[in-house]
Specification:
Strand order of the largest sheet: 5-4-6-7
Order of helices and strands: HHEEEEEEEE
Number of strands: 8
Helix content: 25-40%
Number of helices: 2
Strand content: 25-35%
Oligomer: single chain
Shape: globular
Length: about 160
């Protein structure tokens, strides 16, 4: 399976599972709601996406903020492994894509995938519908949010 298909399936999975999973994750005595969500997201990212699209000794960058389960590692599995591959977003058509967060058309050549997000009232949110993509422009260190349907995804070696 290609990374583009895997990310789109992961978005569908999040949209269907979020309400039920969130009920099980929030309100724990030993961790914050945010940490519980991040641990769950990272675990599912590794099991459902990373292992489906990469060879055994390759690893994606962490999903969003990553997990806080092991302290020193942001991973759930292979906690001592470093990322070997990053996900890049490419406009589906043309050279630019509309960034809804910063209200501008942008070139994504320096932007890497961070996580899937929702978008409401000018802000990205960690809630359904996960139809947007949070990217990070490594060149100018700016967060960008684009519509999932406006981009495709590919892998680049680190």
């Amino acid at each position: 399976m290609q990374i583009d298909s895997a990310i789109r399936l992961f978005a569908i999975f999040l949209n269907h599972a979020w309400r039920h999973v969130d009920e099980l994750l929030i309100g724990r005595a030993y961790t914050t709601n945010e940490s519980s969500r991040n641990d769950w997201l990272q675990a599912n990212w590794e099991f459902l996406v990373e292992r489906k699209v990469l060879d055994l000794n390759d690893f994606l960058e962490v999903y969003g903020d990553g997990a806080d389960f092991y302290g020193a590692s942001s991973r759930i599995t292979d906690v001592d492994s470093a990322s070997t591959v990053k996900i890049v977003a490419i406009p589906k058509s043309g050279d630019t894509v509309y960034d809804v967060l910063n209200d501008e058309d942008v070139d994504l050549s320096n932007s890497v995938f961070d996580r899937l997000v929702g978008f409401d009232n000018g802000f990205y949110i960690l809630e359904p519908d996960f139809n947007f993509v949070l990217l990070f422009d490594e060149n100018i260190r700016v967060e960008r949010v684009v519509r999932l349907n406006d981009v495709k995804f590919d892998l680049d070696r680190l």
